[in-house]
Amino acid sequence: MGKLPSEKRPHIAIFGRVNTGKSSLTNTLAGQDISIVAKQKGTTTDPVKKLAELTGFGPCVIIDTAGIDDISALGKKRIAKTKNIINQIDIGLLLITNSLFGKFEEKLIENFNKKNIPYFIINNKSDIKKLSTSLKSKLKNNIIDFSCKQTDIKSIVKILNKLLPKHAFKSDGLLDGLVKKGDIVMLIMPIDSEAPEGRIILPQQKVLRDALDKNASSIVLQHTDIKNFLAKSKLKPKLAITDSQMFEYVNKVLPKSIPLTGFSVLLARKKKHFENLLKGTNKISTLKNGDKILILESCTHNVITCEDIGRNKIPRMLRAKTGKKLNFDIVCGLDTLPKNLKKYNLAIQCGGCVATKKQLENRLEDCLEAGLQISNYGMVIAYCTGVFKRITSPFTK
User: Fold this and answer.
1) Do the bridges between strand 327-332 and strand 292-297 make them parallel or antiparallel, or are there none, so unpaired?
2) Cα separations (Å) of 163 from 20, 110, 117?
3) Whole domain around residue 211: which residue ranges?
4) What is the 8-class DSSP label of residue 312?
5) pTM as predicted
6) Is residue 177 in a domain?
């Protein structure tokens, strides 16, 4: 059996002051020594991530973070990275010891609430120091006693299941409402310099799997074979899906009677802000000389200088479409967004195939809160090539 990819695993981060036992809890949950445990303060610097399988809960990603009260020379940078982790998680575990609960913990909880992150508090090292009666009364039912010396994590698993029901990470259902049992889906998958040798990219894998789950028949071919296949087979697919870089070509050769969309658009459709992405794409028509655009690429990869979509193709297409002198900044992976988002006129998010739903939601919500319009790689390419209406029509009818 293959391992569940990280974007399909709930991300659980462990927070707390230095030496509250965050690394020890990470190791206890993971069942192995992942994080360094030591009495010295500031042992954990960068967040440490580990794929794990919690009995009774299932596969997840456990993240050990630096202390929220780190006052060392690098403390501010460590705390900044810890705060950024909140944008990437589905559940937060806040560790305390010796009934110490103050401004650091309150600020962290404030950030959890702002991002709608479910959390609970663990009174760690409870075998050494019991929770004070006053604090127990204040925190009510949102805290449990635990000691990393024990190996039984059932009490933690029970709360994890309560905070994040298993159905929260169900299959994306990318083709929901578009195809059904017995339908034919045409997957147009060009093999170019950016296609991984011997493999197909993740968005294509996800769509193909969803078609199989729906008992639909998938026709997989390259863009150069479309005309020949349709002429010989006499089949009419219920839906055609292609890579966004092939929109212009496929739009010309594929009969207008066959609905067409893109892999990245399907991914965006299952996220919270799909309507905002559709609306934001029209911002392109109002861009002016000197406007700044933020490119958000969730994955990290080796850059192919002249063919990279986010760094080269989209900027080139937007400048050509608008005739304006536009400026671009790029944020890769799950790096922190620029502090001043208001200086940008548009944010363009990639398909986000390797990011969790929560990670994308938080990132796009930060942009929207700053009054920034948002769009998607596939939608921008469709707009620039004149096929935006066609590739979004399956969802806007």
Assistant:
1) parallel
2) 23, 17, 9
3) 184-266
4) I
5) 0.79
6) no
Q: How far apart are the first and last CA of the chain?
A: 40
* Residue 174 forms part of a structural domain: no
pLDDT exceeds 70 at position 192: no
pLDDT tens string 79-113: 777 788 898 899 999 999 998 999 999 999 999 99
Q: In the chain, at which residue ranges do the beta strands (DSSP E only) sit?
A: 11-16, 48-54, 58-64, 91-96, 119-123, 143-145, 184-188, 217-221, 239-242, 260-262, 292-297, 327-332, 346-349, 374-376
* Ramachandran class of 273: left when φ > 0, alpha when ψ lies in -120 to 50, beta otherwise: alpha
Is residue 179 a part of any domain in this protein? no
Q: Is 320 left (phi over 0), alpha (psi -120 to 50) or beta?
A: alpha
Q: How far is 142 from 121, CA to CA, in rounded Å? A: 6
Per-residue pLDDT tens over the stretch 113-164: 988 899 999 999 888 888 888 888 888 878 988 988 777 899 999 999 999 8
Look at residue 56 and tell me whether its pLDDT is greater than 70.
yes
Residue 8 confidence (pLDDT): 72
The number of distinct structural domains making up the chain is 3
Closest CA to 123 of 113, 112, 134, 132: 132
Q: Are residues 301 and 251 in the same domain?
A: no
Q: What is the pLDDT of residue 119?
A: 94
Q: What CATH number did the domain enclosing 329 receive?
A: 3.40.50.11410
Helices (H) and strands (E) in the chain, counts: 14, 14
Task: Tell me, yes or no, whether 294 and 321 share the same domain.
Answer: yes
